[in-house]
Design brief:
- The chain is an alpha/beta fold.
- The protein has helices at residues 2-19, 53-65, 95-104, 111-132, 179-185, 206-212, 227-241; strands at 20-28, 31-38, 43-47, 68-73, 80-82, 85-87, 139-146, 161-163, 173-176, 191-194, 216-223.
- The protein has one domain (2-241): 3-Layer(aba) Sandwich (Aminopeptidase), CATH 3.40.630.
- The strands form 2 sheets. A 9-stranded mixed sheet has the order 1-2-4-3-7-11-9-10-8, sandwiched between helices. It has a two-stranded antiparallel sheet with strand order 5-6.
- The protein binds zinc ion.
- Zinc ion binds at residues 49, 52, 144.
């Protein structure tokens, strides 16, 4: 029997090497993301704002030690080139959001050209979401940093439930779209909000697309530069939800 055991051990080492740290590119229309895969887990991570360096550093170290797939936007800036303009890549996950994002830095459009680009984005979005979403019951974790005063209090009006902790900075918080996940996380040490009511006319952020497709989504938001705080928040989420 021992040779079978040895064979299994060698085969699992082979699999670990095969699926550890595989890097490839995927696209949302013109926007390129690097994907790093580490083994198999029903879990995806995304870093979508190129100027949020703390979140990028954390996710790079995290995906080396944890199973799943991590997606990194290939940019060091917040806005990225798309068609004849630039957009916030976290505002194009719905058609109304995309229209607003495309007009932000280019207010005047030929209506036909705008509609053609929006149709193109509808298709590209579907493909991109198929690529990044985990399968049914899986979890998508987005990592963000803030540096302009954005904080949890600005999300309370859009939230169905929330738990604010007195000893926590309001700029560090967790946003989730699943009531079950919220219940597991609300009694932890961190600020948390639940947003699980879908609005058609949403702002086009990834959380709405995840909600629309029934994917569990968690956003871990911290102040830029507060790496150890964001790391603790991510470990807390991983430990409480333990998605395999
Ligand atoms: Zn962000």
């Amino acid at each position: 029997m021992s040779y079978i055991k040895n064979y299994i051990i060698i085969f699992s080492i082979f699999l670990t090497f095969l699926f550890a740290g595989i890097s490839s590119s995927i696209y949302f229309d013109d926007i390129e993301f690097e994907m790093i895969a580490n083994g198999f887990a029903n879990k995806s991570y995304i870093h979508i704002h190129g100027d949020e360096e703390t979140a990028r550093m954390l996710l790079k170290e995290h995906i080396k030690k944890n199973k799943g797939r991590a997606f990194f936007i290939k940019s060091t800036e917040r806005e990225v080139a798309l068609g004849p303009t630039k957009v916030d890549p976290n505002r194009i996950f719905s058609r109304p959001g995309s229209e607003k994002a495309l007009k932000k830095f280019r207010p005047k459009w030929n209506q036909n050209k705008l509609e053609i680009l929006l149709d193109r984005l509808d298709q590209a979005r579907k493909m991109f979401l198929i690529n990044i979403f985990p399968s049914k019951g899986g979890l998508l974790i987005a990592l963000h940093n803030n540096f302009r005063g954005y904080n949890v209090n600005m999300e309370l009006g859009n939230s169905q439930l929330y738990s604010i902790k007195k000893d926590q900075n309001p700029r560090d918080f967790i946003l989730c779209t699943s009531l079950e996940d919220y219940k597991k996380l609300e009694n932890g040490p961190y600020n948390i909000v639940l947003q699980n009511k879908f609005y058609d006319n949403n702002n086009g952020s990834l959380s709405w697309a995840a909600m629309n497709y029934g994917v569990r989504y968690i956003n871990i938001e911290s102040r830029l530069g507060w790496l150890s705080q964001q790391r603790k928040m991510l470990y807390f989420v991983e430990n409480e939800l333990s998605v395999q």
